Amino acid sequence: MSAVFDKSNHVLCTRHLQLNLVKNMKNKGMSDKEVGRLRDDLNALVTANSEPEFEFLQQKICDKHFNGTNDNYVMNTMEKLRQCVWSVSQTVEYVPINFKTNHNESMNNLLKYYTDHEPKPLKSVVDIVTNIQKIQHEDILSAFYGEGNYELSKERLNYRVSKGAWLKMSEKDRKDYYKKLITGVKKPKKIVQSSDGEVQLEEAHVRMKPGQRRGPRREPQTTVHLPYFQDRTAAEITLVHF
Known about the structure:
The protein is built from eight helices and four strands; from the N terminus they run ααααααααββββ. It is mostly helical. It starts with 13 loop residues before the first helix and ends with a strand. The relative contact order is 0.07.
């Protein structure tokens, strides 16, 4: 593959890495439940935002599943995830998180459908692939505002925007927004800064408990200045409207 497509970026399929891992761990006596937890933790590696975070999650897996020791097969799998999945996603503009060969197989299936399973001239094949890509890409983008055949996953619901806001975005903004979504970049939290610029905090969000209702609105208040105190400091009495 590297000899034919020497200028392409090569990414391993996380699904096949998972299948091999499950088979190996079960042969070592690990239960299905434990293997599932290990697989979930390994999936988290490819969404790490930095090298230190990757290494931290890697050590956490060893401590959690192997009491701090290193299983050779798991260590090799994590190294493959680092070199052939995570590292590539940090340098290439478009590499979806948890890339699987299913992405390619689905395109192959569409290509066979639109060519009626018959050989076609190269130019016709390129035109078909280009049109499929354009249609699918627009369909995926519409998931940002809740339309089309796709929807955002639970982990990416914070990227949901209104259709009006999406249409107001420039092409560059849409491209950057889409790139952050598929590469697993976490949406930055809103930061509130003090007036003097010395303190920065995350914007607070008040959340209600399940079943909790909002309390009654506070009654409007009026301040009354009493005229017979004009010769002194203004005395104020707050009255509540009923």
